[in-house]
Model the fold of this input.
Amino acid sequence: MDNSKNLATADPVAAVLEARSVALVGASPRPGSLGARMIEEVAKSPSRPRTYLVNPRYAEIGGSRCYPGLAGLPEPVDLALLAVPDAALEEQVRAAAPARRSSSAPPWTRRDSSAPDRDRLRD
Done:
């Protein structure tokens, strides 16, 4: 597999499955929460991506460093998974744009997207 390809312009499923670095925004130590489930599922990934936990409430989760925000990550990421309340979603989507490795537009900002906030988030 050619790891130098631009994952964001490839098949969206491949972009998720082949991500080499992943930010888990809203990571949580609370058993059963979506934030905890994300950590568990990414840890099972056969691709073993570099994983960055993001949540300003915690310094670490399960022995792994937890970053207060995407801007503080040590590298741009291939994929950001968001498990945040609706009220924080737009802010986190905007924060994810400069933190990603690729400069191509994410799927929800494409002109053919039917997402109601597409035009606002594309800006």
